[in-house]
Amino acid sequence: MGTALACAWWLLPLLCGLARAALPAKPENVSCIFYYTKNFTCTWSPEREASYTKYQVKRTHTNGNDHDTCNSTSEDRASCSFYHRITYPDQYTIQVQAQNADGTVESDATTWDLDTIVKIDPPVISEVERVPGAKRMLLVRWTSPALAPVSSTLNCTLRFRPTGSDRWMEVSFETEANRDHAFNLTGLQAFTEYVIALQCATNRSKFQSGWSPEQTGTTEEEAPLGLDVWRVLGPARADGQRPVKLLWKVRGALSQERTLGYLIQYFPENSTHLAKTVNTTGQQLELYLDQEAYQVSMVAYNSFGQSPEATLRVPAATEKPFRCIEALQTGLAGDQLVVAWQGCDRAVDTWMVEWLPDQDMDPSTLCWEPVSQARNWTMPRHISTPFCCYNISVYPMLQDLVGEPYSVQAYAEQGVPSAGPAVTVESIGVKTVTITWSEVPKSQRNGFIRNYTIFYQAEDGAGASRTVGPRTLRYSLESLARGTPYTLQVMASTLAGGTNGTRINFKTLSISVLEIGLLTLLVGSGLLILLVLAVTCGLRNPTKSKCPCWPQVPNPAQSSIAMWPGDGLQNTLNLKEFEDSVNMQDRILKPCSAPRDLIDKVVVNFENFLEEASTEESAKGQENILGGETNEYVTSPLRLYSPPGRSSGEPLLAAEVAPREPQPPRSRRPGGEEPLLPSAQGAGPARALEDGAANPYLKNSVTTREFLASETRPGQTPRGI
Fold this sequence. Notes:
The protein is built from 8 helices and 42 strands. The strands form 11 sheets. Strands 3, 4, 6, 7 and 8 form a 5-stranded antiparallel sheet that branches. By secondary structure, the protein is mainly beta. The chain has 7 domains: about 25-115, Immunoglobulin-like; about 120-220, Immunoglobulins (Immunoglobulin-like), CATH 2.60.40.10; about 225-315, Immunoglobulins (Immunoglobulin-like); about 325-410, Immunoglobulin-like; about 425-505, Immunoglobulin-like; about 515-550; about 555-680, no CATH class.
């Protein structure tokens, strides 16, 4: 048991070490190349290791007995070169071994034939010269590389292009590996400068040499080859004349013949005797023609002669062009724009292609090129501008007739928009929002807008997006949270990518206008129903509805207190006389004194009074108790009293009336008038009570008022109780 435990303790570290071991990756994709007379180099993958790794490349020759090694590390590039003992021709067997602290891994063995992997130095062009009598040819002289197999056949490629063009043309040929070589380059344009370069490889090798240094040469000058003519028709002016701009160029878009001038002749189609001639050195001419059709002819000339005549027909103003092109498409072939179209008439095999930047409508910047025996056209790379939109039109041409054009917009190269759309909020709801955005200006689009993507995110919430078409500039977002702040922006995307626009913030409503309207309608309807119910109840029982709202207040003018019993009412003080007495004292109320027994004089037995008033009312009706006057006044039994010895200027004390037992009314003194106080309930016509019953509101009520002291009238003496 102890022995087994000890073995376990010894094996545990070993097992842990094996678990932690990380062997280097196996070298794969081994590739070798033979740089002639320089070195033999092999590369492999992976290029980097996680830990420090040593590499050893084992090379074995054909006989199998001779071998050597090359060492490298993971800190260097995963490659190794042999500089010695390189035998050509020969075959090598290569195997790569990788080793780190945890172990060693070997690659599969590969075999390499040096004839198939040899790479020689580039050739050297010594001279490019004209050939006497050959107008469109150049003679290229060059030498083979110094480090190249002498007995090998060389496969060479010569490339050339006119100066100012980035489009290379190539021609391949085979030659012996001699020291000096010459090659005739034909099919060139007259009086044109060309840039030439050359590269070669052995006939069995798959590796070409590098390109030689570039050399230039110019072809001989000759008479202009020919002209291509085009026109741009403008709208007619007020005087009936229409501007026609003539454009031309020497045939062959890259030709640079030294042209001295151009001779132009034009005349009405049916009136050749009216021909006019213009001699110019420019490459465009603006004419003003009438509404008729015109024929235009043109030749270019230099010191070697003149070009063949080129003709052009300007249609009449009322002439309808024929239609031939059914469809037109654009696309990219590599980094070049290609335009292809379909025509309905097989007899039409000549076309004119126009292209013009969309932001530049100046006809002088118009570019054009004729196309023959083809229904596609490739825009030259050197004349295209990245991120620029072009208006491209294709005209069918049948003899001297020009048909209706077919136009399209295209980009030679698209990029991401320079700016995004500007967003505004149009309306906000409880769970919805409507936004609008403006189009990106053409100068900032850098391509065709494919779609718009709306990004929105609630505060402290997850984001979401919606994608719409390029023609959509208004969108409504739904299913938003009520009363929540949001952040929103719109991205405009082209084929190359997208750019975000302005970022806006908004907050959804907590309650909508519709909900407010419904709530108002419900409350208003409830109030209206209550009002209708109240009015209905009031109409059915007006007494009950009137008392709580409008309680009945007794009218003092209708009180029967003004109707005194007895026959002395004719001696009652007239209100007018009382007012005259008040005016005499400047209408200033002053306190006055009264005897203590005055209260017995003003006590009225209301029960007897009401009984007599009711009886008298039934007999007399509404008869005036004051001598037939229209207005009746309520008087009080209280009268003025001034004790003897008190002057009239002294203030009189007001009599305080206390409730006492009712006393029978006193009779008036014969021959004398007692001034009575008006009732405190106000003056007015005295009416009898309708039902004759005692009014509880007036029963046992006593009214007092303060009066001014008046002068003693004749026959007026203080009265006793």
